[in-house]
Amino acid sequence: MDKKVSKIQAEILVQGYHTQHPSFHYEKPIRYCIVLWPSTGGNARAFRFRESELVDQRICLVRYNPISHGGVIGNYDILAALQTLKEGLVAHHLEQCPKVGIGHSGGGAALLKFAQSIKFRQLFLLSPILDSRMSLFYMYDNHCIDEFLSLLYPDSEQVHDPQSFQNKVERIHSLIGTKDWLFDRDLSLLDFPIQNSRIHVHSLSIFLKNLFLPGFNVENQLNDMTANCKIFLPNEDRWFPIAYTLKQGELYKIPIERIEKARDHFFSNSWIEVWKKIRSDLYIS
User: Fold this and answer.
1) What is the DSSP letter of 84?
2) Angle at 73 between CA 13 and CA 238, to 5 degrees
């Protein structure tokens, strides 16, 4: 059973082999602490692991849902999220355990930043967003920005206040339907809350500013990596240029593996295959 701890509204779920598990013995320490950070607006609960396997292999799994992820309401700020996770690991007495990171999309970028202050033995990154602004420019230029915009719709209003829903959708498309906002930075008319299956924010304006104005780039973190790092990519990605990631992998000598079954940025229906590869790399039988 998961153990839930809330810290500054973020959600930290500790699963598997840890000090509160009935089978835990201090003479058999935690083998790995896996830190799982989902995509921006995603949910760490969505990744499937077998509890019995985690316990048998003495693995502690930390599922991390920062503010605005997994139903946690608030304004996502990556630096605050890093500090919250660091404090959460200390609170669970996990700061000294050998750590493995699994990060998807924006969560992969966040773990690269986290690796500057927390030592990781290995990092596994699924389609990491290495540059947040580059991601949006790529989507605008390839005419798939509607995939991003639709994740910002106030779906919670669609039934009980359809007129408000429609007004906000039109405002979203009017203000950020083109890439002009990435230069003029006027988002004041988007200062309203959004709740849907992906994000839960007090202010869409602040959410967008925190992520894209001026944005974040983690290429330097790739260059400074002290942990072993591996990147998994899908066959097709409409959210970030695969060619750029491949180039950075070659430049910084980071192995990259394409997942044949993964047909999109979200690795739909292919997580089990990715986990098997991670498990193999960790020499888990």
Assistant:
1) H
2) 85
| Residue 213 · residue 103 · CB < 8 Å | no
Which residue segments constitute the domains of the chain, with CATH numbers given? 3-131+217-281 (3.40.50.1820), 134-212 (no CATH)
The pair of three-digit structure tokens given for residue 93, joined into one six-digit string = 């007495």
First to last CA, the chain: 23
Full strand arrangement of the beta sheet holding 3-7: 3-7, 10-16, 59-65, 32-37, 99-104, 122-126, 228-234, 256-259
172: left (phi over 0), alpha (psi -120 to 50) or beta: alpha
Round to whole Å and give the CA distance between 142 and 233: 19
Q: Residues 79, 16: contact at Cβ < 8 Å?
A: no
- The 10s digit of each residue's pLDDT in 42-96 is 999 999 999 999 999 999 999 999 999 998 889 999 999 999 999 999 999 999 9
Distance, in Å, from the CA atom of 49 to the CA atom of 30, rounded to the nearest integer, reads 17
Query: What pLDDT is recorded for position 225?
Result: 80
Q: What angle do CA 11, 15, 16 make, to 5 degrees?
A: 165
